Amino acid sequence: MKKIVDETIDFVKNKLIGEGSGHDWWHVYRVYKTATLIAKTEKGNLFVIQLAALLHDIADWKMHDGNIEIGAQIAGDFLTTLNAEITIIEHVCDIIKKVSFKGAKTKREILTKEGQIVQDADRLDAIGAVGIARTFAYGGYKNREIYNPAIKPTLHKTFEQYKKNAGPAINHFYEKLLLLKDLMNTETSKSMATQRHEFMKSYLSQFHQEVE
Ligand code: ADP
Ligand code: NI
């Protein structure tokens, strides 16, 4: 198992190092570490959790024309070359398809314990100081404005609407990031989210004070 995890680390590192939208290797590494930490108290199959954390952004739909299947496909093909067990591969692929945020008012995916932990770890990296940095990096990568008072945030009801959204980066805090604290799946993650959430709120109040 350790060999498969190590080979997966090499594979993902090679593929995502230097990526410029905030979905780079170091994002994946933090999610892997955080998921491993959450699993210490929340349990679950650590092998599945680590593989899913490592492979969750191998081909994100945001960078692949909204294609939700491609990440799981690439991960599944890769794990097959390592002769991982089929039940493990299927579980990891299922998590990869479901973890991504798809809009504030869309129906929530049903996740296994392992999926819940990976989703929480990914979401913890979307909030706090790191979350703020990643949001503006992503905005720049997509050529978006930082702030535009004429474009108001929307709580998207469908994934199709959420996908098409091209609003300024600051709107992303209201459309997703400030909601994440209450969407955490596990108690361990909820307590980790609190301080990061408060930091984002104080950042935003300073931001609005400066621009308004
Ligand atoms: P998820 O799959 O749940 O969206 P990711 O690991 O793909 O999680 O990372 C999402 C991060 O990408 C967000 O937290 C944010 O930093 C950035 N991002 C995604 N969409 C936007 C957007 N419309 N505007 C600004 N940042 C965005
Ligand atoms: Ni991610």
Overview features:
0% strand; binds adenosine-5'-diphosphate; 212 residues; binds nickel (II) ion; Hypothetical protein af1432
Can you describe this structure?
This protein has 212 residues and is mainly α. The chain has one domain (2-211): Orthogonal Bundle (Hypothetical protein af1432). It is built from ten helices and no strands. The chain has helices at residues 2-16, 25-42, 46-55, 70-81, 86-98, 113-124, 128-141, 159-164, 171-175, 187-211. The longest helix has 25 residues, at 187-211. The protein is globular. 35% of the residues are buried. The protein binds adenosine-5'-diphosphate (ADP) and nickel (II) ion (NI). The site of adenosine-5'-diphosphate has 16 residues, from helix 7.
In short:
With 212 residues, the chain is mostly helical. It has a single domain, classed as Orthogonal Bundle (Hypothetical protein af1432). The protein contains 10 helices and no strands.
Give a short account of the largest sheet.
Answer: none
Count the DSSP helices: 10
Instruction: Detail the poorly predicted runs.
Output: none
How many strand elements? Answer: 0
Shape: globular
Write down the secondary-structure element order: HHHHHHHHHH
Question: Helicity level, as a percent range?
Answer: 55-70%
Cα radius of gyration in angstroms: 17 Å
Bound molecules: adenosine-5'-diphosphate, nickel (II) ion
Overall tally of structural domains? 1
Determine the N-to-C terminus distance: 54 Å
CATH architecture: Orthogonal Bundle
| CATH fold description | Hypothetical protein af1432
Question: Looking at the chains present, what oligomeric state does this protein adopt?
Answer: single chain
The CATH class name reads Mainly Alpha
Mean pLDDT: 97
Beta-strand proportion: under 5%
Structural class: mainly alpha
